[in-house]
Amino acid sequence: MTVTATTPTATGQTADKTALGRADLATNFNTFLSLLTTQLKNQDPLSPLDSNQFTQQLVQMTGVEQQLNGNELLKQLVANTSGGISTAVSLIGKDVKAVSDTAKLNGGKAQWTYNLSAAASDLKVEVVDANGKLLHAEAPTDMKAGDHAFSWNGKDLAGVQLADGSGPYTLRVTALDAAGKAISTTNYVTGVVTGVEQSNGATMITINGGQVDWAKVTTIKEAAATNSVPTAANSNANASTPPASS
């Protein structure tokens, strides 16, 4: 089954409205405090202003702020239940392919699939760490258009084996055609989803020990079943047969 990446436009519009409301509230509150300070400085000592009015206005301003906060929490709750974590949980145990430049070392290696939009005449594949330090580089000879699997053994340029679970590491693919023009490339990670979590308002799925935005998933398949229990046919085949009687 193939699915297309989601585009949460409605959520973005709601977030923009909430942000505008909070900005307007902050402006109005600052204006209110300026007016309050001015009135207190210039009030008649023999006929002071009624403090109850100021208190009511402060309560109203606080109420509006609390309502905006409540709307923001409600928006996040709706996102989690309708198009976020509740949907992504169904991917656990599934074999998925998702757009991602980054991966972690898992089982002593990091794996990607890169796609060349056209055949290349010059191709360079690099792995860098989070600081942009080059850890690995090679020039694959298979430069035809399409998907290409790539696996890095986790050793840096000095031959030092990096720790399992370290990363994330980024795959950089540079491809040029015969005229020296850059060819567009897309990187993917493929593997079984083992976890789902919310991080900074985004729903992340865990693939090969690394996290990927679930909205970047492009393909979902049933994970290949592994059965180590010998079947009856295999057991019979492996059993020793007595020699034929003469």
Key terms:
246 residues; alpha+beta; Immunoglobulin-like; 2 domains; 7-stranded antiparallel sheet; 4-stranded antiparallel sheet
What can you see in these coordinates?
It is a single chain. With 246 residues, the protein is of the alpha+beta class. Helix content is 31%, strand content 30%. The chain contains 4 helices and 11 strands. The chain has helices spanning 9-42, 51-82, 85-88, 232-238; strands at 94-99, 102-103, 110-116, 122-128, 134-138, 146-152, 169-176, 185-199, 202-207, 210-213, 217-222. The longest helix has 34 residues, at 9-42. The radius of gyration is 30 Å and the shape is elongated. Mean pLDDT is 77; it is low at 1-12 and 228-241.
